Amino acid sequence: MKNKKVLFLTQAAMIAALYVVFTFISNLFGLASGAIQFRLSEAFTILPYFTVTAIPGLYIGCLLSNILTGCALLDIVFCSFATLLGAIGTRALKRYKWLAPLPPIIANAAIVPVVLYYAYGVRPIWFNVITVGIGEIVCCGIIGMFLLQALKKYAGRLFTN
Predict the structure, then answer these.
(1) Which of 59, 61, 128, 160 is most solvent-facing, going by the fewest CB within 10 Å?
(2) Predicted model pTM
(3) Sequence-ordered alpha helix ranges (H) in the chain
């Protein structure tokens, strides 16, 4: 039983670390936050398709990324929660591979624009919905699905539950 807990924590920590590193890569280009977001780390939101350990890993990774990139408190709390909701939704849809990226796309496109408006005064909200939504479609829907296809072959070795 002890080994399963260690494996769970290790996998979650690795996913969190990957999320943080890829957010920092996006941040180097000014794309990790703001009205136009293109977080490469969001591609990892398909990982709950493979393993439940990705849910806390993604949440903690997003939380740390938001703290370390200097986001406002509302952003840290609610946008991390959006990633958590997306990860839970992806896990719930694990039977439907092609729907895996939809929950994070929807959660982020619904929550992040409101946070951008209230935390940073970025207006109008409808513009934020479009720009954040497009970023999520590219990162989760396109890059994430390429990642899912690439990992599917090795899932048994990488993600032992």
Answers:
(1) 160
(2) 0.94
(3) 2-28, 54-68, 73-74, 80-92, 102-120, 125-136, 144-152, 155-158
